Amino acid sequence: MQKSRRRGIVITSHSPPAVANPEHLLKLEEGAERWNAWRDAHPGIAPDLSRADLTGRWLQGYNLSQANLKGAFLTVAELEQANLDGADLSGGNLTGADLSQASGIGAHLEGVDLSFATLTSADFSEANLDGCRLSEAILFNTRLRNASLVAARLRETVLTGADLSGADLGQASLQDVITEGAILPIDMPEVTRKKSG
């Protein structure tokens, strides 16, 4: 069991049953430069990091495109400028993760917990975030063009300057969401506000 502290929250992670490819996990330990070189040399290999406990890991600039990260624990992980294009992170936990300037075009994030996560200037266009939890997440200048956020839960989420043109927010729950300067879809659900007093 490992504890991490970030932004005043304590996250306890429990190691899930190991089903990730152990060779891929070892390769990940070698750092971004060697990992990315390995990815370039073996473009046909989709890394299997499913259900891996990567809590608090430094993964800045890693090429994780098309990777299997289903059910992975990435709480408070540092994923700035990471390439997550087409990656499958469904069912994972990215609470408090930093995905600033990351690219997740066409990624699968169904049911992912992104509460308290930072996605500043990230691009998750055409990504599937159905059923995602985005409580108090920061999506400042984030691109979510044509993304699917069906039944997503956004509470006190910052969407300032975000581009959600063409996004599907059907059945999404939006409470106290900040949307100043955002490009919103025509059929955006109504944002509910807490009653004062």
Question: Which features would summarize this protein structure in a list?
Answer:
little secondary structure; Pectate Lyase C-like; two-stranded parallel sheet; 4 strands; elongated
How does this structure look, described?
It is elongated and about 50 Å long. The strands form 2 sheets. A two-stranded antiparallel ribbon has the order 1-2. Strands 3-4 form a two-stranded parallel sheet. It is 9% helix and 8% strand. By secondary structure, it is mostly loops. The mean pLDDT is 92. It has one domain: Pectate Lyase C-like (3 Solenoid).
User: How much of the polypeptide forms β-strand, as a percent range?
Assistant: 5-15%
The CATH architecture comes to 3 Solenoid
Mean pLDDT across all residues, rounded?
Answer: 92
Give the biggest sheet: 2 strands, antiparallel
What is the global morphology? elongated
How many separate structural domains?
1
- CATH class value: Mainly Beta
Number of strands: 4
What share of the residues lie within helices?
under 10%
Rounded to an integer in angstroms, the radius of gyration calculated over CA atoms is 16 Å
Summarize the structure.
The protein has helices spanning 22-28, 32-41, and strands at 2-6, 9-13, 153-155, 173-175.
Topology readout:
Layout (H helix, E strand, L loop, with lengths): L1 E5 L2 E5 L8 H7 L3 H10 L111 E3 L17 E3 L22
Parallel strand pairs: 3-4
Antiparallel strand pairs: 1-2
